[in-house]
Amino acid sequence: MGHPTRILAALCLLFGAQSALAQVSSPSSAWQPAPSASGTVVPSSSSGPNSQWLEVLGSNLYYYDEQRAGVLPDDFRVDWRNTSVLTDGAVANVNLSAGFFDAGNFIKALFPLTYTLSSIIESALLWGEAYSSSSQAYYLDETLRNGLDWLMEASSQTDTLYMFVGDQTAYWGGDLNIPQPRPVYSVTRENPGTDVFASTATTLALGALLYSGKALPLSQSVNGTLPSSLRNTTYADSLSNRAVQLLELAFAATPMQVYQKAVDDIAWAYPSTDYDDELILGAAYTAMATGNISWVTTAIDTYSTNAYPPTFGALNWDSKRPMVPTTMAQLALFLPGADSRLSFTKFQNDSEVWLDALVAGNMKDTHTTPGGLFWFKGNSASASLNPALNAAVLCLKYAPMASTSAKTDAYRQWAQKQIDYALGKNPMNTVYQVGLHPNSAFNPHSALASGGTDLARINTSPPQELHVLYGAVVGGPDEDDKYYDVRDDYDQSEPALDTVAPMVAISSYFVGQGQSASNPFFVGLTAPRIIPKRPSSGLSGGAIAGIVIGVLLGVALLAVLGWFCWRKRGRNAYRRRKMGL
Ligand SMILES: *[C@@H]1O[C@H](CO)[C@@H](O)[C@H](O)[C@H]1NC(C)=O
Ligand SMILES: *[C@@H]1O[C@H](CO)[C@@H](O)[C@H](O)[C@H]1NC(C)=O
Ligand SMILES: *[C@@H]1O[C@H](CO)[C@@H](O)[C@H](O)[C@H]1NC(C)=O
Ligand SMILES: *[C@@H]1O[C@H](CO)[C@@H](O)[C@H](O)[C@H]1NC(C)=O
Ligand SMILES: *[C@@H]1O[C@H](CO)[C@@H](O)[C@H](O)[C@H]1NC(C)=O
Ligand SMILES: *[C@@H]1O[C@H](CO)[C@@H](O)[C@H](O)[C@H]1NC(C)=O
Fold first, then answer.
1. Burial class (CB in 10 A: 0-12, 13-18, 19+), 83
2. Which positions fall inside the Glycoside hydrolase family domain (predicted)?
3. What domain range includes position 549?
4. Among the listed ranges 11-15, 31-35, 118-122, 461-465, which one has the minimum average pLDDT value?
5. Residue 304 pLDDT level (bands cut at 50, 70, 90)
């Protein structure tokens, strides 16, 4: 402590915490999502953004308000939410009361939060004008400040990063009775979390780019656009300085390890896959934010000594390897000539190794479901839409940088199919964003939205969710395209900060196209929704026939077996957010 930049940052936080932080002034009347019935209305205006894409984007940002923790600002627009968890972090002398609840429960988890914020910020550095043209820049700023300030507070003590608040206490209910005490977990120089140090640095560096008004390159000849009036160099400098501190810590602290190794108690929640991707991304974005060439060298060195480019594997909150080469390609355009090894064509070629396998459908450990959802073995088992939509975002982002126009088209077409699937072009005729359309999923696994308090009866009490969780993108269907829409099936029905993040990027991309964007798929969707009844066990049809003719003993035995399979399915989930369920 005592370092001038730290004091400055602390002061910024102190001022920021109370009043509205946003720089863009608050709209005279708050943007609110439209009722889902309007999801079939064909956009009619002849200028400005496509109104249905605007609805997708506006609701996505609204979701981050719904998930907001701590003191709610005066002009807060979600009228069913309350101020909560004011003492988060107090046991450790940090004020972690703000920020966001991670998903359907009340934990705060830094690792997926950094992925979420990075993804949103990147969209604003590429297609940023979309936020201004749709009058969403104020909400973008509010969301980002709430997240970035929380990261600044979480990293405000020297050599320490608080990266988790809460535990697995079984609680289902609203925001007034959240169980206390809430433990906080940290990694330190002595007990490091290489990935979380670096992923926080990435997010802060991206924030520094945004608030200093430096867009990312869109292609070899065009830069991205920025939302107007977000620039604040004081803020950008404090974010950038902290990014550097955290990145230095990530590279210096030994042993280098994933964070759940340092803090075994939270390994149940969001286990990280590796840390080399985080280190390279952190170095690349910090190089862009600071202009310090030595981070370029570090990024290339780390890239060369790890297995890049990847040929398969999902892009998700836990593993960002597929986006590492595309970020290096951006870096090569952003700081041309910074290092003799920083060759755009090399990283372009490397980027296309993964992307070409993706669009050709010959990537290892992947397939497409009968209904058209791209499936990554393992990663798609829980929140199946997430890796598919993240890949779609990578395609949209990279397409203008591709080595041939045929590849540009192929990447965009691939992305469009996954986006259409998520927005209703699927065997369930279901729109997987809540509140957008009469066919939207309506039972998101969300303690906040459901209004229920009975942990044993979360599916039926109350029968209908009390609040529509506008903007939430649910996990998604199973490998047979089936979506049951029941609250306790967290693999399918749980929205989270990170499941909404790719839709923010997608909707801002289409909003940015103005009137030339084609309507989102759901606008023309009139076929009735199909909501299959969830099978009560993992048994095959033949086994069920066996039960029918079987003796009572057989029935009991198979029922136990079926229950076991069902439990196992949940436990195999790639990530767990079960919180006592
Ligand atoms: C710039 O950001 C700082 C830090 O959050 C804040 O205190 C200040 O009010 C902002 N300036 C403007 C013009 O909004
Ligand atoms: C944390 O900050 C919030 C917002 O400024 C404040 O209301 C709360 O009392 C603080 N918590 C503690 C323990 O000081
Ligand atoms: C917010 O507080 C009100 C009472 O003022 C309560 O009725 C409501 O359920 C609370 N909201 C949530 C999400 O718990
Ligand atoms: C993109 O922006 C950078 C500064 O951030 C500038 O140096 C470069 O010339 C711009 N490129 C184009 C093609 O406008
Ligand atoms: C650039 O970064 C390196 C590595 O952190 C550091 O040693 C050096 O002082 C930085 N240079 C400048 C000009 O900030
Ligand atoms: C492109 O990358 C692949 C895979 O790493 C490599 O085999 C090939 O030589 C590269 N081509 C060029 C032109 O760099």
1. middle
2. 55-506
3. 535-581
4. 11-15
5. very high
Q: What is the pLDDT of residues 429-481, one digit of tens each?
A: 999 999 999 999 999 999 999 999 999 999 999 999 999 999 999 999 999 99
Asked if residue 404 and residue 460 are part of one domain, the reply reads yes
pLDDT digits (tens, 9 = 90+) for 324-376: 999 999 999 999 999 999 999 999 999 999 999 999 999 999 999 999 999 99
Based on the fold, state whether residues 476 and 371 are members of the same structural domain.
yes
Nearest 5°: phi and psi at 374?
A: -75, 130
Give the CA count within 13 Å in the CB-facing half-sphere of 381.
13
Percent of the chain at pLDDT above 90? 86
In tens, the pLDDT along 48-63 reads: 999 999 999 999 999 9
Average pLDDT, stretch 506-524? 98
List the Cα angle 427/112/229 in 5-degree steps. 95
Predicted model pTM: 0.91
Q: Ligand 2 pocket test: which of 95, 145, 146, 165 has the largest number of ligand atoms within 8 Å of its C-beta?
A: 95
* Total domains present in the chain: 2
* Final residue before a domain boundary, out of 494, 518, 546: 494
Three-class SS state of 475? coil
What residues contact 406, with CB distance under 8 A and at least 6 apart?
none
Clarify whether residues 372 and 473 are in a common domain: yes
Answer yes or no: is 556 within a domain. Answer: yes
Structural domain contains residue 530: no
Q: Token pair for residue 460?
A: 């039926």
Among 21, 149, 231, 238, which residue has the most ligand 1 atoms within 8 Å of its CB, making it the best to mutate?
Answer: 21
* Residue 249, in any domain of the structure: no
CA–centroid distance, 23 to ligand 1, in Å, is 7
Candidates 78, 85, 77, 119; CA nearest to 101 is 85
Residue 446's nearest CA partner among 420, 469, 422 is 469
Whether residue 471 is contained in a domain is answered as yes
Ligand nearest to C-alpha 146: 1
Q: How far is the CA of 224 from the centre of ligand 4 (A)?
A: 9
Instruction: Say if ligand 3 is within 6 A of residue 177 CB.
Output: no
State the residue for tokens 């929380």.
Answer: 150
The structure tokens 């972690």 sit at 96
